[in-house]
Amino acid sequence: MDALTIHEAAQTTGWSPRMLRYIERIGLIEPQRSEGGYRMFGPGELQRLRTLRELLAEHELGLADVAVAQRLRREAGLQADVEAWLQAEPRRPETVSANDWLRWEQHKHARLLAAATTTTDMETTKR
Amino acid sequence: MDALTIHEAAQTTGWSPRMLRYIERIGLIEPQRSEGGYRMFGPGELQRLRTLRELLAEHELGLADVAVAQRLRREAGLQADVEAWLQAEPRRPETVSANDWLRWEQHKHARLLAAATTTTDMETTKR
DNA sequence: CGAACCTTGACACAACTGTGGTAAGGTTGT
DNA sequence: ACAACCTTACCACAGTTGTGTCAAGGTTCG
C-alpha cells in the first residue's frame, strides 16, 4: 500500500484535494490511476508535492510560473526562441559620446529607483 | 536622430504606447530616458519589441510568461531550484527508487517539516 | 451490499494580467 | 511661447489563476 488516495495525499502534502486535481490539470504532476480511475499518489509524487510547496513559497512563484518553466524545458523550440530573445538584452548605445554617457548615468539612477519601487510592488502584490 | 519617442516606437513596432509602458514595467525592456524623462527607443529596442511580438504569437506565450523566463535566467537560485524540481519527475515507481528523492530532499528536510506544520494549520483553519 | 470514498463538471469569487482610457502636469522643438 | 508631445497615476474591464463548494454518479472494500 504505497499509493495514497487523493484525500490521504492531501493530508500529508498540505494541498487540498481540489488543488491536487488542479496541479495535475496544469501538468505539474501525473499520478497513476487505479482501474476505476482513482488517482493514486506514490511516495515520489508526495515528496514532489511537498517540495513544490516549498519552491513556491521560497521564490514567490505561482503554479502557472512553474508550468511555464516546465514548458520551456520540454518544448525545445520554445526554449531556444525565448533564450535568443532574452540574450539580445541590454544593448547600450554604440556611439558613446560624453553626452551619451551622462545620459546613461542618469538613466541608471532612474532605473535603479524604478527597480526598487517595482520590486516593492511585486513583493506586496505577488501571489 | 536614431531614438524614437513612445508614440513613434508604437507605430513601428505595433505595440500601443500603453503596452510599451507596461512591457517596461514588467521588466522586459528598459529604454533610455531623455533629460526630461521621455522614453527614447533606439534601434535595438525597436527590434527587440518586434521580435517579442513574434515570440508571443509563435508560441502562444503571454508577457508574464516571458517575464518568468527572464527571472529564471537572472536569479541563479531560482533557476537551480526550479530545475531541480522539474528534473525529479517521478516516472513509473520502478524506474525511480525511493532513495533518489529521499537523498535529493535531505538538505531541505528542516524546511519541509516547517512547511508541513504551517500547512496543517492552514487546513484546520480552513480558509 | 452499503458506507465511504472517488470522479468530472459546474457555479462562485478575489486577486492578478493585459489592455484601454482620462486627468494633471512637465518637456520639446520650431 | 506654444502646440504637440511626454510623464505618472488613477479608473475600468474582460480574461486567467488559484481556491472553495456542491451535484450526480462510479469505485472500493470490509
Strands, helices and their partners?
The structure is a homodimer of 127-residue chains.
Chain A: H1 6-13, H2 17-25, E1 32-33, E2 39-40, H3 43-59, H4 63-74, H5 76-87, H6 98-125
Antiparallel strand pairs in A: 1-2
Helix pairs in contact in A: 4-5
Chain A binds a DNA duplex (30 and 30 nucleotides) through residues 5-7, 16-19, 21-22, 26, 34-39, 62-64, 125-127.
Overview of this protein structure:
2 copies of one chain form a homodimer. With 127 residues, chain A is mostly helical. The first copy, chain A, has 6 helices and 2 strands; from the N terminus they run H-H-E-E-H-H-H-H. At the A-B interface, helix 3, helix 4, helix 5 and helix 6 of A face strand 1, helix 3, helix 4, helix 5 and helix 6 of B. Chain A binds a DNA duplex (30 and 30 nucleotides) through residues 5-7, 16-19, 21-22, 26, 34-39, 62-64, 125-127.
- Helices of chain A, by number, come to 6
What order do the SSEs of chain A take from the amino end to the carboxyl end, as H and E? HHEEHHHH
Silhouette of chain A: elongated
* Biggest protein-protein contact in the assembly: A-B, 48 and 52 residues
- Largest sheet: number of strands, sense, barrel closure of chain A: 2 strands, antiparallel
Distance between the termini of chain A: 36 Å
Query: Which percent range fits the helix content of chain A?
Result: 55-70%
Structural class of chain A: mainly alpha
Give me the side-by-side strand order of the main sheet of chain A. 1-2
Q: Which residue ranges of chain A are poorly predicted, with pLDDT under 50 across at least 5 consecutive positions?
A: 93-127
Radius of gyration computed on alpha carbons of chain A:
22 Å
Oligomeric state of the chains?
Answer: homodimer
Query: What portion of the residues of chain A fall into strands of 2 or more residues?
Result: under 5%
Record field, number of beta strands of chain A: 2
What is the arithmetic mean of pLDDT of chain A? 76
